[in-house]
Amino acid sequence: MSVKPLTETELAEVLQIAQDGEQKLREMSDSATIMAEKWRIKTQTPDRAIANPESKITS
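^ that's the sequence the OP posted. Answer follows.
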């Protein structure tokens, strides 16, 4: 089985697709981190929030 080497244009296209995918993964990770933090704050025990009046609980 022989494999034809990619042209410079094809390599540039593959690189662009990979970079776009990397950016999308970064955005998804950031979104998941924000959602997890909101969930952590939302499920924080009320006793702890009352004991620490300086804590800022937001929805």
